[in-house]
Design goal:
Protein name: D-3-phosphoglycerate dehydrogenase
GO molecular function, one term: glyoxylate reductase (NADPH) activity
Bound molecules: nicotinamide-adenine-dinucleotide, 3-phosphoglyceric acid
Distance between the termini: 22 Å
Strand order of the largest sheet: 8-7-6-9-10-11-12
Keywords: Oxidoreductase
Structural class: alpha/beta
Shape: elongated
Low-confidence stretches: 1-10
Family: Belongs to the D-isomer specific 2-hydroxyacid dehydrogenase family.
Pfam family, one: 2-Hacid_dh
Radius of gyration: 22 Å
CATH superfamily of the largest domain: NAD(P)-binding Rossmann-like Domain
CATH class of the largest domain: Alpha Beta
């Protein structure tokens, strides 16, 4: 399907794009009778509502700066469609969208290979202490030579076994001793399904790739970190609110954890008073795990195809709620 043969079925043809996509490219996705409005997602809730009033289609903010709450959803055209150009959709009030007939879709799976690559890179760096040894040498120090564990001896636990969890398991199964996982759903896979408690108690390296939901917010706190084996490592490339950052900093400072790698934070950008900044064993990265050229190209394809589907009367793919 392309813009040339699109048949707009709705009377209202306003598409509001909150992402910093190239306007000329997005304009080219639609026939001329569709109005495209590029909207700055940082203008504040009231101005955002004013700019998107009557929109049939909203392309959300890939940088998660706009909160699409019930007030925002209320100004959209009846039966509107929101395409979130990311996997996570925790900035959208999905229950209200369901109740009010707004369809929401995400871009499931577009960046799972990219995130899994980042997790593997973080794991290698953590296991060999590359990040903190580099930092110490730059400060004129000569780091200690405490020996590392080889990857082939490690048990890696995956909390969250969706697209990203699967992609991590695919990469790690050939190179570590054991891959365990816990998820709401059991999958057909070589990795071993265990309870959340068992993942915590057995993981030399715990990798968390969960969505932020009421059930996962704060899921990994002091108690859960204490259940990890002495000297364990933690990786989080899912959502910041899932891991309690103060509890993590405390566990690393106390030496119970040997280190951690975080790509996501409860508040982004990370605040200068974050306790994590004082922990040199914690590798910090600015929410770039999924950000590769390949994933970004795939994302534009997913968004274009889905919005074109909706404007031509087809149901979208990757629906997270449905009004139809
Ligand atoms: N850092 C990044 O750049 C980046 C990129 C992509 C995704 N993410 C985040 O990572 C999350 C996971 O990505 P994905 O592509 O694997 O998503 P996904 O939807 O394919 O998988 C999520 C998995 O989490 C499971 N789950 C949900 N709640 C759970 C709970 N309470 N306990 C156990 N399992 C639970 C689901 O059953 C599902 O299998 C996304 O929601 C997103 O927020 C971050
Ligand atoms: O940088 C990106 O591609 C997005 O912020 C990733 O969003 P996600 O974590 O929700 O996929």
């Amino acid at each position: 399907m392309n813009a040339d043969n699109a048949q707009i079925t709705s009377d209202n043809r306003l598409v509001c794009c909150l992402s910093p996509f190239d306007e000329t490219e997005v304009r080219g996705w639609f026939p001329p009778d569709v109005t495209l409005r590029m909207v700055d997602p940082t203008i504040g809730p009231r101005d955002l509502q004013a700019a998107c009033t009557g929109a049939t289609v909203v392309i959300g903010d890939l940088l998660h700066r706009a909160v699409l709450d019930r007030h925002f959803l209320a100004v959209l055209a009846p039966g509107a469609f929101v395409q979130q150009p990311s996997v996570g959709y925790d900035t959208i009030d999905v229950p209200t969208a369901s109740q009010t007939g707004v369809t929401v879709a995400n871009a499931a799976g577009y960046n799972s290979d990219a995130v899994a690559d980042w997790v593997v890179a973080a794991l290698y760096s953590l296991v060999r202490g590359l990040h903190w040894r580099d930092a110490q040498i730059r400060k004129g120090q000569w780091p200690d030579h405490s020996p590392a564990r080889e990857l082939s001896t490690l048990t890696v636990g995956l909390l969250g076994f969706g697209n990203v969890g699967h992609a991590i398991a695919q990469r790690l199964t050939p190179i570590v001793d054991t891959v365990l996982y816990h998820d709401l759903r059991k999958a057909e896979t070589a990795a071993a399904y265990v309870s959340q408690q068992e993942v915590l108690e057995r993981s030399d390296v715990l990798s968390v790739q969960l969505p932020l939901t009421p059930a996962t917010r704060g899921l990994i706190g002091a108690d859960e970190l204490n259940r990890l084996p002495e000297g364990a490592l933690l990786i989080n490339a899912g959502r910041g609110g899932v891991v309690d950052e103060q509890a993590l900093a405390d566990a690393v400072t106390a030496g119970h954890l040997a280190g951690a790698a975080l790509d996501v934070f409860a508040d982004e950008p990370l605040k200068q008073d974050s306790p994590l900044l004082a922990c040199d064993r914690v590798l910090l990265s600015p929410h770039i795990a999924g950000d590769t050229v390949t994933a970004n190209d795939r994302l534009l394809d997913v968004v274009r195809e889905n919005v074109q589907r909706v404007l031509t009367g087809w149901p979208p793919e990757h629906m997270v709620t449905s009004s139809r």
